[in-house]
Amino acid sequence: MYLTILILPLIGSILSGLFGKKIGVTGSHIVTISCLIMSSFLSFIAFYEVIYSESPVYICITSWIDSEVLNISWEFLFDSLTVSMLIPVLIISTLVHLFSVDYMAGDPHNQRFFSYLSLFTFFMLILVTGGNYLVMFVGWEGIGVVSFLLISFWYTRIQAVKSAIQALIMNRVGDMMLSIGLFAMFAIFGNLDYSTVFSTSPYVSEVAITIVGLLLFIGATAKSAQVPLHVWLPGSMEGPTPVSALIHAATLVTAGIYLLLRSSWLLEYSPLSLIVIVLVGSITAFFAATSGLVQNDIKRIVAFSTISQLGYMVAAIGLSQYNVALFHLVNHAFFKALLFLSAGQIIHSMMDEFNCSNTA
Question: If DSSP codes are grouped into helix, strand and coil, which group holds residue 76?
């Protein structure tokens, strides 16, 4: 059942993308939405089993890297943090798919759009369920690539392509630092498995843990749009509004927050890392909120609001209030997706007018 949660969005994406001409636009809608509805239903069952029955699930599929110095498996972990992330990701993805049926009705590339949405959901599920840092990194890179495809979906618009390239390059900076952090983690701990890293971290020097913690935080800074790597998020509003609701509310931008939450056992042994995290989060929350006050584009206003709310989550992590950060992550995912979809409906009703000052 647990692996079915991951596989269903991938099946919908493959059917819609490769067989879109055969099944048609309506068939593409039915396949992708049905797969996500079933996956969402199974995620509620998983939530009940893991949270209320207190029975976390570990699944090892096969060996991936088997050498003398490193053993990595394709493994997936369903614990309380994972199932708490599955609910907002799958529910909001399902609702965005339903909203897109009408919103993208006039677009000639419906099948490609729905294939990208489902593929993005699949990689996000890989990220949150990965049983070690390398499997999580596969999902991390996957959502980066698919976000480029979604932001530049209207590839005939020069500004959309420019925004997608900007988002990709800014995220490459964070990905590079995260990959260096994983190399440092392997050099220090000898493994990338969660249990090994977290159980041995009390016996490692504080300097080494601080280096790893700061490298992981820089990776999270780019993905979760924290100052100074935040400029890609307002620009990425050039994509279709459902993309903004999915990527910039519940999934892509929360990946960095998830990384910090997952690494909380490591960060607790590095006071300097926590101080840096709370400072960056506080600055981002204030800076983005004040920047949003002077915007005219309705979607850019909501985008700066997203950056500010992510700053609150990062600041809560820096204060070691991980439960507060997770609560606000789930809460923010739902109301921000609603704000983006509402903004899209307003833009449609105003004949695709983005400027608030012109519609006042």
Answer: strand
